[in-house]
Amino acid sequence: MKKITTKDSSITFYNEKVQDYYHSKSGAKEEAFEKHAKALNIYSKKNPVIFDVCFGLGYNTAAALDLIKGKAAIYCFENDIEILKKITEIDADFKSYNIIKKFIKNFLDNNIKIYEENNIKLVMIFGDARKKIKNIREKADFVFFDSFSPSKMPKMWTKEFFSDIREKMKQNSKLSTYSCAKFIRNNLKEAGFKVKDGPIIGRNSPGTIAINIK
Ligand SMILES: C[S@@+](CC[C@H](N)C(=O)[O-])C[C@H]1O[C@@H](n2cnc3c(N)ncnc32)[C@H](O)[C@@H]1O
Questions:
Q1: Domain boundaries in the chain?
Q2: Which residue's alpha carbon is nearest to atom 5 within ligand 1?
Q3: Are 177 and 145 contacting, i.e. CB atoms less than 8 angstroms apart?
Q4: Class of the 28-212 domain?
Q5: Which tens digits make up the pLDDT trace of 124-170?
Q6: pTM (2 d.p.)
């Protein structure tokens, strides 16, 4: 796991096994705010339920917590202890990162999966997100989909997984992802989503917003 400083001064890592970065080198913090939390207008919904699919360093959840004023529940899907351990070693520049750190420390030290503070509830769903999603009872208003890239981890970008995620989303809820690849958008469409361009941030091409119009 190699530590990298991205162009907005925020830290990310390179995973040697997967041979991929956890974030865009143009700015890890910027990516969390602009491609996910702000791109989905998460503050437009009262008491949102959010799924952070591929939690990693927790930047997308931290950005969401920085923007949300009231109550929120965030389900955090991750399957690698090593990246969670990194959270305890870094200081990321989000107002809410101390909440993320406490949540992860409780999970790593005592296997406590639920963290509650004021109006915020964070739930760790540890394991393969493709299996775990099927057992989630609550439905999401927003989904941050932030897998390693389609070329490095194609099994995460399938029609089947997108369908299983969509099953657990409310009507008119939205999913964000950084990829705009045609086959990814086709898989999203085949899973029943309507797709549109997300913001263009740090790359030449836009991300994707997938809307669950049932
Ligand atoms: C591109 S990184 C996500 C970056 C993250 N959003 C952040 O803010 O750091 C992809 C993450 O997906 C996790 N992952 C890979 N396969 C997974 C699976 N089958 N289920 C759950 N998480 C998985 C990896 O361990 C990694 O942390």
A1: 28-212
A2: 56
A3: yes
A4: alpha beta
A5: 999 999 999 999 999 999 999 999 999 999 999 999 999 999 999 99
A6: 0.97
